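Database export, one record per block. Field names are fixed; values are copied verbatim from the stored entry.
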Amino acid sequence: MNDSGELSVHALSVAVVPHTDYRPLSDFPEALLPRARRVAEAHGIPLEHLLVVTPNDVVETGGPDTSARALAALGPPTPDETLLLVRSGPLRDAKVAALAGLVHAFDWPGDDLGITHLDELGGVLALDLPRWALAAGARASTLVCDEPLFADGRLGMAWFTTVGLRVVRGPGPLTFLGSGEGPPPDDFRSEAPARRVTGRAPCDVWLTLRNLLHLGELRPGERVLLHTRGPRREGWLRLEATDPALTYLPEPR
């Protein structure tokens, strides 16, 4: 592990778009049924109303590219900035390399790395990659992309979401204190002042945190626990709001 000092978040962008290209569960192989049952039970959706995202539609329809929007909002990279793409599930089209597409579209100058199949934990484990990869003073643009496999047929859609984080190996507005899989550490409540932010999907906790920052509700020195607990996995991430008012919160482009 790279142990070159603290890691901090300097910017937080969000891109969210509705997605409607889902099909009935009966159109898919029975091997998907056990996972579908777990999701339906966890979200209170009757199994007969559960829909599954249509494969390959990103190619056929030019589907929403939330990753590109969130990345553009962060602004231009430094010459050696690393690009990290974290996806909750697999690509909807195995023939399309999402990370390679971003590198090409943005003419990305630095290294790039992607990881998939983190399920609900993509958001809380997103800072583990730069924690290992960044040398002192280096920075990374980290994208947490969530394209839900399932949707509630009574709504007819789901939300595709990407959170963009500009992360620096060094001090900054939000200091990374640690993360892990499983229940949060027991000692969190003993930290004062402390705030807990909870969610089910990978990006939920970052969306809530961005709103808290936008409203100015975090105080300097306040500790924040981001806690994600979904149908399959549970995880956590701890931050200190060192100087929260300085966090850059760009709107998606």
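Remark 1: Helices lie at 33-43, 57-60, 66-74, 98-105, 128-133, 204-214.
Remark 2: The chain has six helices and twelve strands.
End of record.
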